[in-house]
Amino acid sequence: MTFSRPKSTLLASGTILLLALTGCAGIGDTASSAASSAASQLAEGAKKEMIKTICSPIKDGTINAGDLKILNSMVDAVREGGLPTEIVKALDDVAASGDKVPADTQARLVAACDSATQ
């Protein structure tokens, strides 16, 4: 026994299936794009918060022992956090200075913070 369907019915069914698959792909692309955008915004927000955390203790232009302890604890995170090179280099120099941070090193970190927060 054979079933016969008109060609127009088969063509319409195929068209609907194709549109459904195309629509799903479009929704998937849109969802992927939205997720990527959200991840980028989250990463950018995390960078800004890290910069605030680094720059907050030195707002007055000096680095005391407490500030130095906070800054030294953040060196590794800053190196891997994708922050501006000026902040990374200045913070590395601060950490390498030991207990007595030279005035020019402090000034470079303050300037890097000012530049990054504008």
What does this molecule look like?
With 118 residues, the chain is mostly helical. It has one domain. It contains five helices and no strands. It has helices at 7-55, 65-73, 75-80, 85-96, 103-116. The radius of gyration is 28 Å and the shape is rod-shaped. It starts with 6 loop residues before the first helix and ends with a helix. The model has no long low-confidence stretch (mean pLDDT 76).
Count the domains.
Answer: 1
Helix content: over 70%
Overall geometry comes to: rod-shaped
Largest sheet: none
- Given the helix and strand composition, which structural class is it? mainly alpha
Oligomer: single chain
Rounded Rg: 28 Å
**N- and C-termini, Cα separation:** 79 Å
Beta strands, count: 0
Arithmetic mean pLDDT: 76
Tell me the number of helical segments per DSSP (H or I, 4 or more residues long).
5
Low-pLDDT windows of residues: none
Topology:
Elements: H1 7-55, H2 65-73, H3 75-80, H4 85-96, H5 103-116
Can you tag this structure with a few keywords?
0% strand; mainly alpha; 118 residues; 5 helices; 76% helix; rod-shaped
